[in-house]
Write a structure and sequence with these properties.
Blueprint: E1 2-8, E2 14-15, H1 27-30, E3 32-37, E4 39-41, E5 47-49, E6 52-58, E7 63-71, E8 74-81, E9 84-89, E10 92-98, H2 103-106, E11 110-114, E12 117-122, E13 125-134, E14 137-142, E15 147-149, E16 152-153, E17 157-158, E18 167-169, E19 174-180, E20 193-196, E21 199-206, E22 211-216, E23 229-232, E24 241-247, E25 250-256, E26 262-265, E27 285-288, E28 297-302, E29 306-310, E30 314-318, E31 328-333, E32 346-348, E33 351-355, E34 362-368, E35 373-378, E36 394-396, E37 401-405, E38 411-417, E39 422-428, E40 433-440, E41 443-450, E42 453-460, E43 466-480, E44 490-495, E45 498-504, E46 510-523, E47 527-531, H3 536-539, E48 546-558, E49 562-564, E50 570-571, E51 586-593, E52 597-598, E53 607-610, E54 617-627
Parallel strand pairs: 2-3
Antiparallel strand pairs: 1-54, 3-47, 4-5, 5-54, 6-42, 7-8, 8-9, 9-10, 11-12, 12-13, 13-14, 15-16, 17-23, 18-19, 19-22, 20-21, 20-23, 21-22, 24-25, 25-26, 26-27, 28-29, 29-30, 30-31, 32-33, 33-34, 34-35, 36-37, 37-38, 38-39, 40-41, 41-42, 43-46, 44-45, 44-46, 47-53, 48-51, 48-52, 48-54, 49-50, ...
Length: 629
């Protein structure tokens, strides 16, 4: 019989896939876990019960959250729902703005911010500009391209039909008739612009598929039949922009419904001027992404270079500065991005993290000096079992955690600390479904669906319950009101710092058995920690019985610990050796004896699971084992 002592000093590999249960040779196995639910993995290696969520407001419905940072002191949360944008600051509702997007369209809504303006794009809806004029005054309007005069807009143009199709104008100015050599017009062309030999005309009325009445806003060159004509790129007929970004003092538009693989760059310093001019350094730029695969643009990101994420590959646009002469477009990797929903790329320490097209990957798009090119490493390789269909993501630089809500309502959380090679996954769950997430200032906000109602909540380290509220009373009271969002729900109650157990909210009120001065109420959640089974390579015990003799947990500022070492979950009393009184915040080692043998080397030897809303932090675990030779 062999005695073994295994020391687990950290959890910096996070929860790993069950497919790696035989890979005891991996560093990820040594530092990983079988199950990590509702915990936060510290970059230094420990685990803590995750923060609770504090209730902010009842949302108007399904949608998504967008961060708006006007300056360091003025940050806002935009909640986009069916037909509305609701603006919050510091958890307070400031304004409601009417919006054109329905629930289905919001899934593919993209945005880009510059100063006091957010540009919002969807390929089926005219692009909008949300302007902050004050905390309570916000306006949503259509994009307006630079005008030379009242009727000449310097917007992008393109010939969507066969190059051989011609147009013949009846006159050179004012009211004219345009005759096409083939059917090209539809009623939707009314009020859109054509450019004939670089001169603009606006279509006034539809006559037939080959004839329209128009107004020449500039003197045309002549009335000769010509194939040199184009129509405005963005319209109800041809669709609208997919996404936008700001890069090197230019507005970059990425793709449209009918031109999904094309980029337009405004004039330098003139964001709404897309006149290509004569190719001067400051003139607008336009080109397509052409290769041997699909390149429908899904997102733009302004980083070290302009990064273009498409459905089939990742590209960069180089040029310092970008000019029509020195611009270069280079494909870097062939991963592709999700196509059924917009998941915004996120910058983490110079790397751009994006959701891969399969919906099972999180890729790190990062420049490698050795190759002088970008790589796209898969950060979800060891946690593929629960990375399924991401719907949103944001990064909290303080906790070093990337939060990625998934289609099933859970959140895949990745702790990242690249300098120490820490990439640790765990799963976050709540009593409901987390729909969207956004980082506003130093606070992470969530849109959560609970019982067919949508809530806006924020992570809060001071309370370890979900959808929670807290309050105080000058005089002790047993009846607490204002709990509308938790009506008829069974909630966990903390009164005067003591866990009082579960109660039911009735008529938006909570009636306690005795009076308290302070109260915290919310939905409980369970955190679970299960280790990987001892490595076969470490124990040399493949197929042999193993017994856990004792597990020693190194705790930090912990108030509750419930452990199963083979005989069911048991609450552990936390006290210093030689003292009988329990401590409010315990830091030190707790040794727990275990009994019984197991021959199933795929099962964990201990398990922590508790919904008590009190702090619990584990820094490391030592296991004393016996192996039957």
């Amino acid at each position: 019989m062999t005695d073994l002592r295994l020391v687990k000093t950290n959890f910096t590999a996070g929860e790993i896939s069950p497919q790696l249960l035989a890979r005891g040779d991996l560093r990820a196995y040594e530092n990983g876990a079988r199950t990590l639910k509702n915990v936060a993995i510290h970059p230094t290696g420990g685990l803590t019960r995750r923060q609770g969520t504090y209730f902010i407001d009842t949302a108007l419905g399904d949608g998504r959250l967008i961060s708006f940072e006007f300056n360091a002191d003025q940050t806002y949360l935009l909640a986009v729902t069916n037909g509305k944008i609701t603006i919050y600051r510091n958890g307070l509702k400031l304004a409601n703005v009417d919006a054109p997007w329905n629930e289905a369209q919001i899934k593919n809504l993209t945005w880009a911010q510059s100063a006091d303006t957010v540009l919002l794009c969807h390929p089926d809806v005219p692009p909008k500009k949300l302007l902050r004029q004050s905390d309570t005054n916000w306006t949503l309007s259509d994009w307006r391209f630079t005008k030379v005069n009242m009727n000449v807009q310097l917007q992008p143009y393109y010939k969507f039909v066969d190059e051989e199709i011609t147009i013949t104008p009846s006159n050179t100015f004012s009211n004219i008739t345009l005759n096409a050599s083939a059917p090209v017009f539809v009623p939707g062309h009314v009020n859109t612009y054509l450019r004939i030999k670089n001169k603009n005309v606006m279509i006034l009325s539809y006559v037939s598929s080959t004839v329209v009445n128009a107004f020449a806003t500039e003197f045309l060159v002549d009335t000769a039949t010509t194939p040199d004509w184009q129509e405005q790129v963005f319209s109800a007929v041809r669709g609208y922009p997919i996404c936008a970004a700001f890069h090197q003092d230019r507005l970059i538009i990425g793709g449209s419904r009918d031109l999904p693989n094309r980029l337009w760059m405004s004039c330098s310093g003139d964001l709404w001027n897309f006149n290509k001019g004569t190719g001067l350094d400051s003139d607008a730029i336009e080109f397509g992404l052409f290769s041997d695969q699909i390149n429908a643009i899904r997102a733009l990101f302004s980083g070290r270079h302009l990064q273009v994420f498409t459905s089939g590959a990742e590209w960069i646009v180089t040029g310092d500065p970008l000019t029509p002469v020195n611009i270069q477009l280079v494909r870097q990797t062939r991963i592709g991005s999700i196509t059924n929903r917009y998941v915004p790329p996120v910058d983490v320490d110079g790397a751009t993290l994006f959701a891969g097209r399969t919906g099972r990957e999180l890729r790190e798009f990062i420049y490698a000096d050795v190759e002088q090119a970008y790589q796209a490493n898969d950060l979800a390789m060891i946690a593929r079992h629960f990375i399924v269909n991401p719907v949103d993501q944001c990064f909290d630089p303080l906790q070093r955690i990337l939060f990625m809500p998934l289609a099933d309502g859970t959140v895949a959380a990745l702790t990242i600390y690249r300098t120490e090679s820490v990439f640790a996954w765990c799963r976050l769950e709540t009593n409901g479904a987390i729909i969207s997430i956004a980082m506003i200032g130093a606070v992470v906000y969530l849109l959560v669906k609970r019982n067919n109602t949508y809530f806006i909540e924020r992570f809060d380290e001071t309370i370890l319950l979900d959808a929670a509220l807290s309050g105080t009373s000058q005089n002790p009271t047993a009846t607490w009101s204002g709990l509308n969002h938790l009506n008829n729900r069974e909630v966990m109650v903390i009164g005067d710092g003591v866990v009082l157990g579960m109660k039911t909210v009735v008529n938006n009120q909570l009636v306690l058995d005795h009076s308290v001065r302070s109260l915290s109420v919310g939905l409980p959640y369970e955190h679970v920690i299960e280790p990987l089974p001892p490595s076969v390579m470490s124990t040399d015990g493949s197929g042999r019985a193993i017994r856990l003799v004792r597990a020693i947990f190194r705790m930090h500022e912990t108030r509750a610990l419930k452990v199963d070492t083979g005989n069911g979950l048991k609450q552990i009393t936390l006290h210093r050796p030689g003292h009988n009184e329990a401590l409010e915040n315990f830091t030190g080692d707790i040794g727990i004896h275990a009994f019984g043998w197991t021959s199933d080397n795929t099962k964990p030897l201990w398990r922590i699971a508790q919904n008590t809303p009190l702090p619990c932090t584990i820094l490391g675990v030592t296991m004393e084992l016996k192996v039957n030779d």
